[in-house]
Write a structure and sequence with these properties.
The chain is mostly helical. It has 14 helices and five strands.
Length: 289
Amino acid sequence: MPLRPLRDALSTWSPGRAGLLEPIHAIAAAWPGIVGADVAANSQPLELAGSALVIVTTSSAWSQQLQMLSLPILRGLREIPQLPPIERLTFRAGVVRGRKRRVPAAGAAKARAERAAQTPPPPAADAAEALHRLRRRIAAVRRASSGRCSVCAAPIDAAAVTCAPCAGAGERERSIALQRLIYAAPWLVVEEIREQMPGTTVAEYERARRLLLQRWWTVLERAKRAGTLSRSGVERGLASSYLLLQSRLRPDRITPAVVRNLLGADLEALLWPSAPGKAPGGDSSKPTH
């Protein structure tokens, strides 16, 4: 049997066929198109663990950023042909293969200082110069003993991981991501939320829940005072979220009595002016029962 030229063999190969054998390879090939070049340079699909895709990132900060993008990433993965169902994403910090690692400037400066320290300086000319050298030496020791923020590389105490501004920014981003998840699926309990955001505590959930309830009620009260809804009718979606978060009931347990008890008859009539217990035209923005 004659051998086929390599060019002819390659012309019949396609990523789609390879993806049938190795789903993780198909995901890796599509990854830059799903998340973008910058994110792809700092993350990499690692393996499939059941219905979860494990993604390695260059830092915990990148893991938090990708956590907030879980829903659009999952939508992008579903567009890859012949993939097994992927229901959630998990992240871990590690080494992203193929990424060029930069040597921190602080490391180069430290190496230069160590080389200089190996050569003894000439004796000080007087007491003032000796005191100046001592102060410089103390300052150098302090700099060498301090660490660097894992996000912005600012000097920090060796025991810390991130500086205070970056830590605060990370907490705010995580809080926003949690609020978005609760708004998208207000019926989820803490155990179910942890599947999307590992490590979520009951205190974090309750804090995000109270913030959303306060915001939604402010909007609903404003519409009630005005006697009309906005042109987009966003108040109906917020009212549905408010009902589920306040009552802690599943959507199929929300009855007209629950709606009237939590929102009041006036606000209920403003939001759904059709027959009691049913939104006009079968509007799904009101929980069904």
